[in-house]
Amino acid sequence: MNHVQLVRERWIRRSLLIATGISAGAILFIFVLLVYFCLPLITSGGMSSVLSWQWKPFAGEFGILPMCAGSLLLSVFALGLAFPAAIGICGFATVLAARSLARFTLVLVHFMTSIPTVIYGFVSVFLLVPLVRDWFSTGTGFSFLTAGLSLSLLILPTIVLVFHARLQQIDPALRLAAEAMGLTPVRQFLHVLVPAASRGLVVAAILGFGRAIGDTLISLMLAGNAPRIPDSLFDSIRTLTAHIALVLATDSQSMSYRSVFASGLILFLLMGAANFFIRRMDRGPGENRYENGR
Amino acid sequence: MKTAADLLLTAYAWFCAIAVFLATSFLLGFLFKRGMGVMHPSLFFGDTPWFSALLGASPVFEGIWPALVGTLALVLVSSVMAIPVGIASGIYLSEYASARVRSMLGFAVDVLSGTPSIVMGLFGFTMILFLRKTALPQARPSLFLAAVCIALLILPYVIRTTQTAMEAIPEHLRLLGPSLGLTRWHHVRHVLLPSASRGILSGAILALGRASEDTAVIMLTGVVARAGLPASLWDKFEALPFRIYTLAAEHRSVQELDQGFGMALVLLLMTGSLFAVASFLQRSLEKRWKTT
To answer: Which residue spans traverse the membrane (chain A) (predicted)?
Structure first.
């Protein structure tokens, strides 16, 4: 290489590095900005007021714990519905269905990811809400149950696609061996493929859970947004994400604002922790035991 | 040997697959049934003649045209920011970075892609508060701010799809550049990038769909229910997903509700066709590697 080329190579390398640095810089900036706006809470002792169970802004109570509980309960519920269904669909597409049917199922699930969240919400408002209201004849239909059902449909593709991708990475020899031992398709899936991709199962669950926690519109449009702990499936709840949207759209009291920054920081840290956990797990000993090639 | 457990689990798997198929069909069927009836020029332009509306000569009050233009402008501006940077990052992560750097920056990309969109919107909101306190007292939510936040939201998608497309290039092509004595950049530019182009393009197209559907980010960074056509990057704007969201809660008449269904259908057709193009590209790519 001559000198000119060398200099050019170096500059290209540098500019590509800078482009990559933007993501890291953005993450850092988001974190710093959220912490900066949360600082008044810590220094002025407002933390105990925000971390309480009462949200009554006009009485001066700004607790966001009901929203934390709402987010967790709703996400666990949605995951509880979507996760078993996702495993069923993966089993269907991997071992049970004929090739063309399996392909169709996967394309459908893939297509589901491209349906805008707001459409899931919009259609549910006019299709699912009346159904829930009429069938169970309690409340308005804007409830934990309605939001949970829609949310499970929303996170299902994430879980299916992540887990299916992991299943595809398994060394085909393993499947052949199981076949040769005379295992039925169901048993191949249950006793050979799923255990071999067990970490993929955990990763898929975490990513699905994260998608549920991070989603705003479904809970905002369907859950009724009452800031309290639900007593039953038909109660109205409010999630952290919906809380942020609602408060910023209406309130202008400074303490309300601060509770919003605290909510944002909690969400951010939660997702960061989830990613960190996934990373640790993928690096742990014994990973890629059954994976083929690269 | 088949047992009862086998049969039960087979039935369960079929049930799951069919249930998801039915749920999606109900959702789409309901939307098409309610939305197809209003698919008419007046949905877009109201009473305004479509030609002068297209030219922006006369304002549209009844139709969804301003929201459509707002969404298109948002997608355009955010993808102009995110796609080049994303592709460059993807190339760096797959071809240049050392294992350590790749893992560190890769983690940053993962955290960015895991950031909930409402938090990204909150970030834009705090940025305005921050700018008002410091350099720019007149800063306010706008199309540009929303586009920046959306760009950050779709950036990780573009990075990851570029990286995956580059890493999927078969070994014999990776040897081509060095064997001809090409410099690293020439190898990337003339051998690897052209081979990965379809994968990269399909990732970029999916990112466009993601940018057009997100609601949580823009509702904190400058979208409003009624704004007309966006006059500049520094103005508030309308967008399809946000209008759909507001109409669900506060439609005043059957006409408005119908309009909501029409908008939802337009948005779905938009993201659906982007998805179709992207998956066509992806499939043609897979075929190509299989035959070579």
So the answer is: 16-42, 62-95, 107-132, 144-167, 188-213, 260-278
Q: Is the pLDDT score of A15 beyond 70?
A: yes
Q: Which residue of B has its CA nearest to A86?
A: B16
Residues of A with Cβ-Cβ distance to B5 under 8 angstroms: 186
Residue A70 distance to chain B (closest CA, Å): 16
Chain B residues in contact with A213 (beta carbon < 8 A): 116
In whole angstroms, give the CA distance from residue A245 to residue B231. 26
User: A39 CB near a chain B CB, below 8 Å?
Assistant: no
Domains and CATH numbers, chain A: 50-283 (1.10.3720.10)
Q: Give the pair of three-digit tokens for residue A135.
A: 């069938």
Indicate whether A253 pLDDT > 70. Answer: no
Give pLDDT, residue A33.
92
pTM of structure: 0.91
pLDDT tens profile B35-65: 888 887 777 877 777 777 776 766 777 778 8
Name the token pair of B35: 């939305």
Q: Contact, B238 vs B70, CB < 8 A?
A: yes
Higher-pLDDT residue of B140, B216: B216
What's A197's DSSP letter? T
Task: Give yes or no for residue A234 having a pLDDT over 90.
Answer: no
Question: Residue B207's pLDDT band (boundaries 50, 70, 90)?
Answer: very high
**ipTM score for this prediction:** 0.90
When pLDDT is averaged across residues B157-173 and rounded to a whole number, the result is: 91
Give, as one character, the DSSP assignment of residue A92. I
Mean pLDDT over B73-102 rounds to 94
Distance between CA atoms of B76 and B70, rounded to whole angstroms? Answer: 10
Which residues fall within 8 angstroms of residue B81, CB to CB, at 6 or more apart? Answer: B147, B148, B151
C-alpha distance from A268 to closest chain B C-alpha (Å): 6
Domains of chain B: 38-291 (1.10.3720.10)
Residue B156, exposed/middle/buried by CB under 10 A (0-12, 13-18, 19+)? buried
CA separation for the pair B20, A85 (Å, rounded) = 9
- pLDDT tier for residue A288 given thresholds of 50, 70 and 90: low
Please name the residue of chain B whose CA is at the shortest distance from the CA of residue A24: B108
Q: Is there a contact between B116 and A123 if contact means CB atoms under 8 Å apart?
A: no
Query: Which residue in chain A is spatially nearest to B7 when comparing CA positions?
Result: A186
CA–CA separation, B193 and A238 (whole Å):
47
| Chain A residues in contact with B127 (beta carbon < 8 A) | 33
| Count of CB pairs separated by less than 8 Å, A with B | 247
Nearest Cα of chain A lies from the Cα of B56 at a distance, in angstroms, of: 28
Gap between the Cα atoms of B212 and B264, Å rounded: 12
Write the Ramachandran bin of A56: left for phi over 0, alpha for psi from -120 to 50, otherwise beta.
Answer: beta
The CA distance from B286 to B292, in Å, is: 10
The reported pLDDT for the residue numbered B170 is: 87
Partners of B123 on chain A (C-beta within 8 Å) are 30, 33-34, 264
Length of chain A: 294
pLDDT level of residue A293 (50, 70, 90 thresholds): very low
Close Cβ partners of A198 (under 8 Å, ≥ 6 residues apart): none
